[in-house]
Design goal:
30 helices; ATP binding; CBS-domain; four-stranded mixed sheet; antiporter activity; chloride; mainly alpha; single chain; Clc chloride channel; 12 strands; three-stranded mixed sheet; Chloride channel protein; transmembrane helix
Length: about 750
Amino acid sequence: MVNAGDMNGSGNLMDFLDEPFPDVGTYEDFHTIDWLREKSRDTDRHRKITSKSKESIWEFIKSLLDAWSGWVVMLLIGLLAGTLAGVIDLAVDWMTDLKEGVCLSAFWYSHEQCCWTSNETTFDDRDKCPQWQKWSELLVSQSEGASAYILNYFLYIMWALCFAFLAVSLVRVFAPYACGSGIPEIKTILSGFIIRGYLGKWTLLIKTVTLVLVVSSGLSLGKEGPLVHVACCCGNFFSSLFSKYSKNEGKRREVLSAAAAAGVSVAFGAPIGGVLFSLEEVSYYFPLKTLWRSFFAALVAAFTLRSINPFGNSRLVLFYVEYHTPWYMAELFPFILLGVFGGLWGTLFIRCNIAWCRRRKTTRLGKYPVLEVIVITAITAIIAYPNPYTRRSTSELISELFNDCGALESSQLCDYINDPNMTRPVDDIPDRPAGSGVYTAMWQLALALVFKIVITIFTFGMKIPSGLFIPSMAVGAMAGRMVGIGVEQLAYHHHDWIIFRNWCRPGADCVTPGLYAMVGAAACLGGVTRMTVSLVVIMFELTGGLEYIVPLMAAAVTSKWVADAFGKEGIYEAHIHLNGYPFLDVKDEFTHRTLATDVMRPRRGEAPLSVLTQDSMTVEDVETLIKETDYNGFPVVVSKDSERLIGFAQRRELILAIKNARQRQDGVVSNSIVYFTEDPPELPPNSPHPLKLRRILNLSPFTVTDHTPMETVVDIFRKLGLRQCLVTRSGRLLGIITKKDVLRHMAQMANQDPESIMFN
């Protein structure tokens, strides 16, 4: 036997793994993190810093810097996210107007900015000024007539195709992850999944540039969802500068949760709504500390955007409105009807869009992403141009639909027949009969509504950045405005009806059609995303009207109830399942009476579980086991006969440990014994040096007994964020349950295809 002296002499060599080595604790791409392990590592790191801070002033300063690093990261995220959002808003404004004309005095001015600077603009013709020329005026010196219209029409389509082609080409060549909304993947990443490159610097750059291009092209999509992805890319970039976050995937996700809040804050100008959106919709683990930091990041982002003032109206969004008329109880009925419409539209959209995306994935259509984008852009531009409500940008459309008709409005929607004897103040214009412009606007809105409903189904999910918030709000706002005008005219012509008699007297300003547009927008957005609390807060932050919370709540809750009656999944969860990501939704209920033994592997008839023994396997045995299997880790037992559980070793860390040992430790060869115990095993004389791997062993893996109900196991996986769980009976190892096994079992119990869960 090797004597004690020899053993002691080689102690330093055998224990080299007591010092951390490169890449330990990291995860492979498309794998799930172990939340408990990350939490434990952060606790150890914090304990070490706290104990060292008492040794010297320098260590104390370092501990203070570590404590403040989280707030510094939030400040940087807020500043960059707000700046990027401001730049995107300004660029979109200019490029959208570029499709129709150009400013001669300064080509980088948008239509509105161009006419602001002009001294020849009149109030009645505030959209017309000599400095701004349509393409037909510039090229053929004609502003009216068929030839001018056809030329403008043709150039509108060409600009749209040019922007869309450039966007899809940039995404395809430089950053394939920059496509889509980004929220389904952000939700999956925040639940603990690793998608390397999804939040990288190239993705940030390309998504920012292409977002401007696709929104300017006039496609039926918005920038709000992708702005969450952009903000999370900022969060990932800044967290990589601090070792506290770069070396701990769990801590990094706390930063990304706060970044998502900053993204919504600048998208809608709603800091509180952003925090609630992150909490309700995207975050998986949201401790109180993250709530405060999210609030700070959202505040800084909103302040930065306000400083840039991209819309020139001292507001954070284009469609900020204020109403001056209260709502009445009888109006709750049309508000609830709009909620029903929102729920039905949400269900229709999710089913049709998922069917189309599935077809894209499984047929030849998916092989031609550039052609698909070009065709959809061409169809959108050709149909959109003749209708003034689809020609303009969707944000401008929503802004016009939300607006209350004041005395100074020139929109067709405000073409009412005025009473020449009216002497009321500007803010309190009574209900009036609709003029010809309102009726023209109604049928144009009806056509625009049908067009938006259909084209959005095919647009969302293409290989370009595409948000869903704005198109959904536009659909609801159009439906709401039409309902609002209908109720308004009904109240005007039939004010003696019992439902109007108490609150709508002749000459009173009773119905605000813009409020109906806002309620409809909230209902449709709620029907598609299934948001409730954060949606209502975002909407009242948009409008600045606290008294309209009840109508918004009624519509949001109704749309969720109606949509949930046809299926519990929102659009983001549906896309997560379509892509096969391992996302264990907190909202899903598991009520089946199965046991851990029904789900664990190995099942009957399968090969026995691959395990490591604590002190009887050689380096070659371990390497062979790793080579012949693709498991993410291996349970460690006393021996293959007793199968009493000792701990769990991760595959990646075994590979790294053996590789480092061969490089740094003399005497480690293929037939060296690997041991996971504190003391080395007794070995024959002249045996090669054994290899101690106790440091990489998880001595407290989570275990359940074989008779644990699966309902409990699912809850454990959800609430603790487990990667795997070992099944034992009286201390003996029986099997293993992974997150993938849980998801496949849940899919099987719901009569879905369990093979749709593709990743670990």
